[in-house]
Write a structure and sequence with these properties.
Blueprint lengths: L4 H7 L7 E2 L10 H17 L1 H7 L1 H15 L6 E4 L2 H10 L6 E4 L5 H9 L3 E4 L10 H10 L4 E4 L12 H11 L3 E4 L15 E5 L11 E5 L1 H4 L17 H6 L5 H17 L1 H19 L5 E3 L10 E5 L5 H12 L1 E2 L1 E3 L12 E4 L7 H16 L1
Parallel strand pairs: 1-11, 3-4, 3-5, 5-6, 6-7
Antiparallel strand pairs: 2-8, 7-8, 9-10, 10-13, 12-13
Helix pairs in contact: 2-3, 2-11, 4-11, 5-6, 7-8, 12-14, 13-14
The protein binds pyridoxal-5'-phosphate.
The site of pyridoxal-5'-phosphate has 12 residues, from helix 5.
Family: Belongs to the class-V pyridoxal-phosphate-dependent aminotransferase family. EgtE subfamily.
Enzyme class: lyase
Cofactor: pyridoxal 5'-phosphate
């Protein structure tokens, strides 16, 4: 019981082949999630896929309950999707209200594309020089010009900045505006239990579940505003709106794996994980502060484990990423400007270690970056 959170997290999964600093793209799954998914696939082969699905109902319900605990919504508000983008598309595609949305100028590029595809007019929320939401100015702007919905990505893919989700949720509640939250990077990382009108996320990032899974939670009052565009269900058994959103073929084994992973997150303690991820971010930015040729974009104490490095001497993050993998076994992400087309001007290199990163790992990464510049 004296093991630290980091030691327990590391012991609960396969040994990394090198240094993994890439949880913002895809964390390393644990043995329990991997085994549960494999066990479900075996069970499908033994009793039949539809019978196995019925038998898995309790674990899938537990996964929904865990999402509810992290978002402030109810387990019955949650459906599984194939990812965060899929969840946003389901929501926007079903939107029966006015198709206008207010969001950060640094909004995730693929989200902006989905907003445009679904005919939403986009207006920018006011931000400071870091790209952080200016809360009072946002309240004024939303009161003056009411959009059909407000969308916030509390933690982006291109920059490890924690946005003020709680204060914006309060403003939206006061103004009676629906707040939709992209928690792909924020769930299991920042406090998201603000009971927004809708919230969606991805399994494979900070919750360390399998790929190809996401969740969407919609508060009952927002359900009224949705008209899913799906073929009519069988008249004998009309589906609820939420059931229509969840309709379609899906990977039950992956849902089972996700349910186990998010259960492990809750068992580790959400506050303890958040505190450790904030510490990891501080350690990472400190370790990278003096690496020649790169500038740390985030304030050192930003309470997230995402650190981005902007090249100051012409390095190409895509080439450096490939070099780090090939030569040193260090996995990072190169983020190009499409991730946040109106905020990111040059590609950046993203380091996103999970709770188990060691000072030694960070020293190796800093030294490798210096060598990459020299080589
Ligand atoms: C990764 C990411 C997404 C997309 O998630 P998928 O599950 O791959 O669809 C959406 N928003 C943000 C901020 C992300 O980082």
């Amino acid at each position: 019981m004296t093991d630290t959170l980091a030691e327990r997290w590391r012991a609960a999964r396969p040994k990394p082949a090198g240094v993994h600093l890439d949880s913002g793209a895809c964390s390393r799954q644990g043995f329990a999630a991997i085994d549960a998914a494999a066990q479900h696939a075996r069970h499908e082969a033994e009793v039949g896929g539809y019978v196995a699905l019925e038998a898995a109902a309790p674990v899938l319900d537990a996964g929904r309950a865990a999402v509810a605990a992290l978002t402030g919504l109810a387990a019955t508000d949650v459906v599984y999707t194939t990812g965060a983008n899929h969840a946003l598309n389901l929501l926007l595609n079903s939107w029966a209200g006015e198709r206008s949305v207010a969001c950060l100028p640094g909004e995730y590029g693929p989200n902006l594309a989905l907003m445009a595809l679904n005919g939403f007019r986009v207006s920018p929320l006011p931000v400071d020089e870091h790209g952080r939401l200016r809360v009072d100015a946002a309240a004024d702007a939303l009161r003056r010009d009411r959009p059909g919905l407000v969308h916030l990505t509390p933690l982006g893919s291109h920059r490890g900045l924690a946005q003020p989700l709680g204060p914006l949720a309060e403003i939206c509640r006061d103004l009676g505006l629906p707040l939709v939250v992209d928690a792909a990077q924020a769930l299991g990382h920042l406090d998201c239990a603000v009971a927004p009108a809708a919230i969606y996320s991805s399994s494979r990032k900070w919750l360390a579940g399998p790929r190809g899974v996401g969740v969407l939670a919609v508060r009952p009052d927002l359900i009224e505003a949705l008209r899913p565009r799906f073929p009519p269900s069988e008249p004998a058994a009309p589906l609820t709106v939420l059931q229509q959103l969840a309709h379609g073929e899906s990977n039950a084994a992956a849902h089972v794996g996700f349910s186990v992973a998010i259960g492990e997150h809750l068992a580790a303690g959400q506050a303890a994980v958040r505190a450790r991820l904030a510490e990891v971010g501080r350690q990472t930015r400190t370790a990278m502060a003096d690496v020649a040729g790169w500038r740390v974009v985030e304030p050192v104490d930003e309470p997230t484990a995402i650190t981005t490095l902007e090249p100051t001497g012409g390095a190409d993050p895509h080439r450096v990423r490939a070099w780090l993998i090939a030569e040193r076994g260090i996995v990072t992400t190169a983020c190009d400007a499409r991730r946040a087309p109106t905020e990111l001007t040059v590609p950046v290199l993203r380091l996103s270690p999970h709770v188990d990163v060691t000072p030694g790992d960070l020293e190796l990464a800093a030294a490798a970056l210096a060598d990459a510049a020299a080589g």
